[in-house]
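Journal club prep, notes for RB
We'll compare a predicted complex against what the paper describes. Inputs for the magnesium ion case:
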Amino acid sequence: MWDFSFVIPAFFILLILFAFYFSLPRLKIRRNLFFVQIVAVELMTITLDILASLADNDPFSYPLFFVHFLNSAFFILFFIRFYLFFLFTISLLNINLRNSIPLQVLTVLPMALGIFATIASFGTGWIYYIDESGYNSGVYNAYIHIFLFIYIIYSFMAVFMFGRHRRRRERFWMLVYNLILLVGVILRILLPRLLLLDTFCLMAILVIYLAFENPEFYLDVGGTVFNSQAFRDLIEETRGKSQQRLFGVVMHNYYELRDIYGSHQTDEGVRMIAGFLVENFYKYSIFYYRKGRFIILGDSGMDFERMSALISERFTRPWRSGNAELYMDACFITMELGEEIVSPDDVFNTIVLAFNKSDSRNIRMPYFVTSNELIQTRRETLVKRSLEYAVENDRMEVYLQPLIDASTGKLIGAEALSRVRDMDGKIIPPGEFIPIAERSGRINELGEQVLDKACAFFREHDLKALGLKWINVNLSPIQFMRSDLTDRLEAILKKYELGPECIHLEITEESMVDDGFFQKQMQTILEKGFKFVLDDYGTGYSNLTRLKKCPFINIKLDMSLVWDYFESPDDILPTMIKAFKSMNFTITAEGIEGQEMAEAMKRIGCDYLQGYYYSKPIPVDEFVQKYRK
Ligand code: C2E
Ligand code: MG
Ligand code: MG
């Protein structure tokens, strides 16, 4: 006799789980689909298990084909179930078998063989047969577990091979539910009459639910809309596969709203907006991305105009809840997601930028994000990552560009220019990474590393043989603002036992905005013996009276000024240079690209020349080799 008392509670527990799962919004991603399939198949398996047991206990009270039908349907689901568990595991690991036919065959084969053997049992009795004595196990019945073992082994292999990128906790629970399945199969072999496997499948499903499939993991705003993790996972899975459209709604002046209405009321406002969006756009997936920002993701049929008209209209009226009345405004962004999507981060970064832009524009017209912007933010992310890596791992490189004494035509100094490489080893120009480093504050470490490397170079080489007297190091305005700058500079020089005279600090006019602080800072650094050079003169807005107060030793004319003069000579630049010289500044001309240019600059009184005509910035070793002669 089959004892199916074990499986009845399992059936009801699963039913509750299923009902709960379906009461909440679910994301349309692969693993959710597999989970639903697992639960559905398990429910059917249990049902058939009970029915088949009833029939097998008393086979002659039913038509024979019906008993056959129940038994074979049971066995078929029996195999499908383990295949689904396996598919679920690999979807958790982001493994897609779509591209590999051999792997597809290998993974479908055990299930296919099992189903084939079940159907063949009608004639052959391989798995089971029904005769005068009733239901009997077939000759191969004992072997059907092999197919289940194969799926469990596949799953373990997948977790061990591809689970490294997952969090430890996730990996752990993946192993746990697969172990539960394994124990279930073993017990089924040892105690076949107890129908224990269903209980173990239920346990595995519970683990999956608690560790991975609880819909609340993906929900926000009281469970009405999805959260940003959901957005990330959905984009990760669908990127490049289909054309999608994105409509973003951002509450205008979110922080101001919080100030006016308080956080409780503002959260209520967020809830009302979420409710409104869900009600009107239930066809699409709606996400909340913190700080009053919503993302609506839909297919290419999404009508931006209709949506913005509908939502704008709603925002013209106050939002009421209980006794609260909120006046809110919103801005919109629209975006097409096509093949250019490489990672969810691309989309995220672009959206956040666009949200900020559209919020600050303060108009209701949707801000259309172009694919150009996407490519730009991706580049920025790449630069950011490379910069972080370079600074963290001391991989930033210093290139040197010679400064030539105009009177002798010989090397006299060099400018240290930093270089960062991307993941492929290609150089990223400083014009790209310096502004990013300044925004993130990394410029402080980067600047110090440049100085450190310049000092190391100074220490290691025979500079007399090269004719090198000093090295110019660029100092960003961000670095210049630090009150402990002097100590930090001194510490680096001390490390190499160098005096401050060998380093010239280049600053731009940007550093001179706060006059009081600027004077004070400069004074402290000068007292320690450092020298200052004014970089990129002609691009900012300094005037001569102001420069008079500043003890620079050298002024570098920006190449735009130099090239301008060379194109159409006039009296302005020579007069300016004369004035500078009367103020005791020496002059460097940047951007010298030819001999005539060099001659012209020398003629009007430039003391030093820098430019591609002499050399581009080159790696330190190359520099030494070039000038050793
Ligand atoms: P900068 O300080 O004005 O440096 C001179 C820039 O002009 C260098 O660009 C150099 O390669 C370029 N240059 C020199 N001669 C010629 C020429 O004849 N023709 C042309 N077309 N260009 C020439 P680079 O190395 O790309 O650096 C750009 C800017 O990035 C620098 O301008 C500087 O402001 C900043 N930078 C570079 N390294 C550092 C650093 O370590 N710290 C800080 N704060 N800024 C840096
Ligand atoms: Mg410079
Ligand atoms: Mg310059």
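Talking point for the session: Residues 568 and 582 are 25 Å apart (CA to CA).
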